[in-house]
């Protein structure tokens, strides 16, 4: 009898541990991407996701993967939804229409950034997780308008007392690639400012918030920079000042260990400097002259051959 009791206790204990287990991100991704969700409403979908994950980190990742992989970006739907919400005459009617449009977006799996961001917030809300929707603009090309064009929304969450940005609105890969999903997930404020600029500068969550002019002059955040979690890039301007007889120092920090073997600089497509990666912080000194095009690249040797990454770009004045 004692043996049976002991076995039962072990099984029950293992089940309890498994129930509250914290998964690695790739495990969360696999569960969400391969599961058929039968719930229809935002609340019941949130609850269904919550049955698989108890840890807050896992829940946030699961909500992000669910929306970014299941939703389809549809501008026509977004415009129609905006017209419906704009027709509201009172705040009460506005709230009712907003809730109705979000439910419709989830059922049809369609929307634009507004639907993505508000659905993420709702999924988190029903799981007891705070998330904020931030209006702003997203940088999709190197040249920006003289004045900000606020046409994008995204989310911020707080983990262990730190603000982290999430943007569910991006083209998902047809074949699973974790590095693609990681590009816009839990980005630190110091790095997210290269990507998006909020209407309210306080929502940068930086000790020294940037003006729009400063944001406009930042170097463009390449997909590879986001995927490899490259941070603390210097200079923090897209245009370098060429100084005759002096070298220009370019530095950056690798956020992922062992991601690269070498970092090298191309000036007008000519390799001028190579640095072997032996630590996270990389410093490179190069000679440049006005009108030079400067590209900072990374190289990683794999079993299938060499892989090259575009880390950041500059123009020289």
Could you please describe the fold and organization of this structure?
The chain has 317 residues and is α+β, with helices and mostly antiparallel strands. It folds into two domains: 19-216, C8orf32 fold, CATH 3.10.620; 228-316, Immunoglobulin-like (Sandwich). Helices cover 37% and strands 26% of the residues. The protein is built from eleven helices and 14 strands. The protein has helices at residues 2-19, 25-34, 42-52, 56-70, 75-86, 91-108, 113-126, 178-182, 189-192, 212-216, 223-227; strands at residues 72-73, 110-111, 131-138, 152-159, 162-166, 196-198, 231-234, 239-240, 248-253, 262-267, 270-276, 281-286, 293-302, 305-316. The strands form four sheets. Strands 8-14-13-10-11 form a five-stranded mixed sheet. A four-stranded antiparallel sheet has the order 5-4-3-6. A three-stranded antiparallel sheet has the order 7-9-12, with no helix packed on it. The N and C termini lie far apart (84 Å). Residues 1-19 have low confidence and may be disordered.
